[in-house]
Write a structure and sequence with these properties.
This protein is 34% helix and 27% strand. The protein is of the alpha/beta class.
């Protein structure tokens, strides 16, 4: 089997998550790692038995493709340098800090004809993939992504950290442009917004409400979709989908004791093939490079997600 030589830039939490799943993917050869924190890089290299590159230039030169898991503020600079040299890129979300940076990278990707993927891991959640096949004409979508406070992310707020996942999923489900939105958010424990809410209206009249928090005591990650036919509830954590349908007026049940019950609703559970979404994400990246698979999301979608998040952040900060 052909293998792709991939290097990992950034050995924090997400970088190590990638390193862990790469070892389980047959068509990926890990060339090594690079981190500006040399001590951490050495420690991680021993854990994963891999090489430590001494500079950004060295890991780029010695790799066909790169996974960029550095802090967000370095995404554009590193990706631009690597793409310019013809390297394939998987960059953790958010793609870039700004819409203009995202547009520039998209142009460069097309010019150099390389594979470019953004680490929206929820795209590879089995329940999300199944939902995309069964949803038609949604009219109301409600997304909630709430989590307790941690120091894991300190360079961006909750919109670019958590809400961006649901913006990506919701816009891919609706497949129509956002025509107007309202957003608000507040600082609670950091210098950025820690809670945020956005109400989006799409061209087809679909309404979506998205709530995100990184200061909530319970971890909740759900997506609900209302259509004329049914109500769908997706749990990201368990990769479950339940479908609620209203029973017909003839749905009466009579027990052996002669007691009549009226069935008011029908609940169905969808069978989901569950796997590690990050493993699927990294395998898809390698398979696209090897021309085994086609990209499931075009780069234009990633650029559009950055545009929407930037507009939401602008509106939130105007209220501060």
């Amino acid at each position: 089997m052909s293998k792709v030589n991939i290097g990992v830039i950034g050995t924090g939490k997400m970088g190590q998550f990638h390193l862990n799943v790469i070892s389980q993917i047959e068509n990926i050869n890990l060339t090594g790692i690079y981190d500006t924190d040399e001590n951490r890089a050495l420690e991680v290299s021993k854990k994963y038995n891999t090489n430590v590159f001494k500079s950004l230039e060295e890991i780029i030169d010695n790799s066909e493709a790169l996974i960029i898991a550095s802090p967000t503020k370095y995404h554009f600079e590193i990706a631009k340098k690597a793409i310019s040299l013809g390297k394939h890129i998987l960059v953790e979300k958010p793609m870039t800090e700004t819409f203009l940076q995202a547009q520039e990278l998209a142009s460069l990707v097309k010019e150099k004809n390389v594979v470019f993927q953004v680490g929206h891991v929820e795209r590879f959640n089995g329940a999300v993939q199944e939902l995309s096949h069964i949803i038609e004409n949604p009219y109301l979508i409600e997304a909630r992504r709430l989590a307790p406070f941690t120091n894991r992310i300190s360079d961006v707020g909750v919109v670019l950290d958590l809400m961006i996942h649901d913006l990506d999923i919701v816009t891919s489900l609706v497949k129509k442009p956002v025509i107007r939105f309202f957003a608000n958010g507040k600082k609670i424990k950091s210098n950025y917004e820690d809670i945020a809410s956005a109400l989006l209206e799409f061209e087809d009249n679909t309404i979506a409400t998205i709530s995100a928090s990184r200061v909530t005591q319970e971890k909740i990650r759900t997506l609900s979709v209302s259509t004329e036919e049914a109500y769908f509830l997706l749990d990201y954590s368990t990769q479950d989908i339940t479908i609620h349908r209203q029973a017909t007026s003839q749905s009466n049940i009579k027990t052996s004791l002669g007691i009549n019950y009226k069935q008011e609703s029908i609940i169905e559970r969808v069978f989901i093939h569950r796997d590690n979404p990050l493993k699927l994400e990294d395998a898809h990246f390698a398979n696209c490079i090897l021309n085994i698979e086609n990209k499931i999301v075009p780069i234009e979608n990633d650029v559009n997600t950055i545009r929407i998040t930037e507009e939401i952040l602008k509106q939130i900060r105007e209220t501060w």
